[in-house]
Every structure is written in C-alpha cells, then in structure tokens.
Model the fold of this input.
Amino acid sequence: MSQFRAVKGTRDILPGEVLSWRHVEKIIHQVAGIYGYGEIRTPAFEYTDLFQRSIGATTDIVGKEMFTFRPEEKGRSITLRPEMTAGVMRAYLQGGLGAASPVHKLYYIADLFRKERPQAGRQRQFSQFGVELIGASSPEAVTEVISLMMHVFGELGISGLVLRINSLGDRDDRMRYIVALKEYLEPYAGSFDGPLRERLEKNPLRILDSKDPEVRKIVRDAPKLGDYLSSSASDDFSKVLQYLDDRNVDYTIDPLLVRGLDYYCHTAFEVASSELGAQDALGGGGRYDGLAGELGSRQDVPAVGFAVGMERLLIVMEKLGLLKDLSASGPQVYIVMQDSDLFGHASGICDTLRQSGVSTVMDFARRSMKSQMREANRIHAAYALFVGEQEAQSKVYGLKNLGTSEQESLPLKDIIGRLTAVPKT
Ligand code: HAM
Done:
C-alpha cells in the first residue's frame, strides 16, 4: 500500500462501484429527458462573491464551509463551488438564455466542495444531481420539479422517503415574520454562543436550521412562518399542495423548514430517508425568484429547483438492497494465446475485431492459457477466442461461448459477422 491516502472527506469510486453510479446516472439522464430538461455544465470554481451574494453571507456554507483561494496575489478571490444553483443562474444570465426563450429547464450531475466535518454521508467533495427550472415558478412549475425528483426515486426503486414542505412567503412576509421571531428569541440570547448571537442579529431565519439540540428545543415553540403569509402567498402554497395531492405525492407540512440557503422564497422542500441516520436529508430545493436580481438582472426571473446528494442516494439504495443485481458486462471477446510468441498475430486479430466494433481484450502479462481463461471468466467476457500455432496458420479460430461452453471453429470474418449481428427481437 502506498503512503498516500485520499484527502480527508474525499473518496475514490473504484470500478465495481462505478457500475452503481452509472446505473443511477443513466436513470437521471433518462428521466430528465422525459421531462424535457437539458443538461448544463458550469465551471468547478467561480468568483467568491457569487456565492456570498446568492447563498448568503451568514449561512453555514458561506461562513465556514467554502474552499476559497486567490490564484494571483492581487487577483479576485475564487471558491470551489459548494452548490450549483448560483453558477447555473450566473450562466443563464451571462449566456443570455432568457432572450432565446422565457423558460429554460436545466439539469446537472456535478461535483461540489464543502469544508464540512466528514462523516458517513457527509464529504468535502460530493456530488449532486439537480434541476433548475428558470423562467417560471408557478405552483405548476414547483409541482413539476418535485414530480421529476420523485420520478427518479421511483425509477430507482427507492421507497420510504418523506417529503417535507413549507412556504417561506415573499420578502415582506419574511420581514414581518423575522420581527416576531427575533422578539421570541431575544430572551434566550444570553445562552447563545457568539455565532448564534450574530445570526440572531443579522439573519434570525438561519437559527431555525441550527442542528444544536438545545437551540432546536427553543425553536420548536417559535412563531411559525406560515402564520405570517399574505393571502396570495397562502393561495400559492395551497395550489402547490393541491397539485401534489392530485398527483398522489405524499408530503408533510413542516412549519419550521426554511433550508440553509438564503435565496429561497415561497415553496421550499426537503426529502429525507430514515436509512440515512443523522444526515437524513437526501435532497432539497425550492423557489428562488430573487436570485437573478441579487446577481444584477434588471428583469425578474422566477425560478425553482432542487438537488439530491448522489452519495446519499447510493447509501440509501445500498441499504435497501437495490444495487445487488448490477453486474459488470464484460467485453465480448477475450483472446487466449497459446504462447506469447503469437502476440503479433493475436494483436492483429484484436485490432480487426475492435475496428469492427467488437469489444476485445487480450493478455499483456504473458500468462498461461489456463490463467488467461480464468481472467476471461473473471471479467465476464462473453467469448474466448483461441489463437495457437495451428489457428495462426489456418486462420480458423476456436470461439468458445463462455456462458454455454459451446465451441466452434470459424474464420475471422464469420466471427465478426456473428458478434456484430443485430439480435432478432
Ligand atoms: P442543499 O440542501 O445544500 O441544497 O444540498 C442538497 C443535497 O446535497 C443535500 O440534501 C445532501 O443530500 C447533499 N449534500 C449537501 N452537502 C453534502 C456533503 N457535504 N456531503 C454529501 N452530500 C451533501 C443545495 O445545494 C441547493 N443548491 C439545492 C437547490 C437547487 N435549490 C434550488 N435548486
């Protein structure tokens, strides 16, 4: 073993596990396609002020979890992206996508970076899949993104999830609520530590996401945002709930759900799994109508989206036994050589097969025929193709089906014909 280890909070995804990732990714691409979402890719780092502006300076993410650096001594500060929404909105505005069409439906699978304390389901480099529906955030749009998320879970066979939902109202609703919340929390301020007192001062909503059990106890009896919604915000939220009912999506209204990022308004939601333990949030999202304005857009750009943690998704699937049947499909052909002097001839065959689109591998380790056969079976090759002195002269090769053990002798062009034939359906 090498003295070098992966950095704390990061992990390798070795070939066996990659199968599970590709299975999940395939379903995500499929479902996103079914709903008409197009993939977007943005840079892994952005200027730091993008995240300060959008996620909010007093959030945990911006306050203590960002990997920030200055590539040039006097240059602008840069941050490894801790989430995708800000970068996607920046790309949408910078690319002038709104001019081409008022509504853009985007999705991504991307690596993100947060300087959190690593534990099961919480890493410093992790991956999310998510969607951002930019240009609409009506109850219909909100319901669509939630349906898409649930559709992915359904296709993956995941059950036992709890969808929690709440409305954060509009800016005025939150202003009124914050006054009441502050008033309620003020008497407890003496027991708060420095950062908590700062939050009370600058952004009391963030106290509602505190994980501290003592703070959670206090917060339980705090005024509820739902009681401060204007009638239009209430109507909007009722419509979302009605549409979810219509689509038989189960949910629980959680009056304390505010999410840990500042850009949300109106509907916000989270999906949790009891399979995850302490880090039970599998995904979350909501509306963020004010984000484009925060980033300097003169036009209002309503938007809604969500993101789901890929590592947590795979943990849940593993626990539910949903990854067991994923077996590697190996190459079509493994070339078994009688001895290494035949390498030149065998590699010519290998090339011809590959040029014809037949996936083919051969031995590089000068192993015995027996070891080559063992390797062919280990990597789940469909056929072994034998190359010995006699075969090299006659140009007729033994082809063994490793599933049925049937063996035939065929010239190369017949082998190619057989292996490239489109199966009859
Ligand atoms: P978020 O709640 O910060 O939302 O992250 C979404 C999901 O990412 C979490 O529920 C969790 O599964 C996963 N996650 C977050 N941090 C970690 C970590 N350190 N290790 C492993 N998984 C993690 C957002 O990021 C928003 N951008 C979602 C959104 C999209 N809202 C609107 N559009």
In short: The chain is about 40% helix and 20% strand. The pocket of histidyl-adenosine monophosphate is lined by residues 83-85, 114, 116, 121-123, 126, 128, 130, 132, 261, 281-286, 288, 305-309, 311-312 (CB under 6 Å). The chain has three domains: 15-167+252-319, 171-229, 333-420. Residues 109 and 129 are 4 Å apart (CA to CA).
